[in-house]
Amino acid sequence: MSTKIILKANRKFGSELEGEALVSQEPIHFTLDVASETGIVMGTKHDLCGKSIAGKILVMPSAKGGVQSAMSIAELQKDGFGPRALLYDKTNPIMVQGAIMTNIPIMDCFDQNPVEVIKSGDWVRVKPEQGIVEIERK
């Protein structure tokens, strides 16, 4: 039997989609922490080291980096190694711009911290127009 949890976001952009969650306890710098040719987190001290962000609903506490990080996520997306969506407890305007440029759904300012609620492997439905994220835990 699965359990359904709903989070409400104050800020959101993008189209509705669903996928498997990949949760990090720390921010990712898309230029320094992710291999552009594979989408695999390469920062040896990062909690997602060795894991691929490709096609995942990526959940993090905050954004990391500036313009270059936003440009790197665009490059990852173009090459098929980007995440399906970005869910943050709190993001920054540059990462929002990068997500909009690459048409990656992005949401933040939730009623609960998504890093504490969502677990890697959960099935997540991102519904930006409604301002909600549905999480199914099996």
Characterization of this structure:
There is one protein chain. With 138 residues, the protein is an alpha/beta fold. A hairpin with a 4-residue loop joins strand 6 and strand 7. A 7-stranded mixed barrel has the order 1-5-4-3-2-6-7. The model has no long low-confidence stretch (mean pLDDT 94). Helices cover 19% and strands 33% of the residues. The longest helix has 12 residues. The protein has one domain: Glucose Oxidase, domain 1 (3-Layer(bba) Sandwich).
Task: Give the SSE layout.
Layout: E1 3-13, E2 17-23, E3 57-62, H1 67-78, E4 85-90, H2 93-102, E5 106-110, H3 114-117, E6 123-127, E7 132-137
Parallel strand pairs: 2-3, 3-4, 4-5
Antiparallel strand pairs: 1-5, 1-7, 2-6, 6-7
Helix pairs in contact: 1-2
List keywords for this structure.
seven-stranded mixed β-barrel; alpha/beta; 3 helices; 138 residues; Glucose Oxidase, domain 1; single chain
CATH topology: Glucose Oxidase, domain 1
Describe the largest sheet: 7 strands, mixed, barrel
Mean pLDDT: 94
CATH class: Alpha Beta
Distance between the termini: 6 Å
How does the overall form come out from the CA principal axes?
Answer: globular
Structural class by SSE content: alpha/beta
Count the strands?
A: 7
Helix content: 10-25%
- CATH superfamily label: Phosphohistidine domain
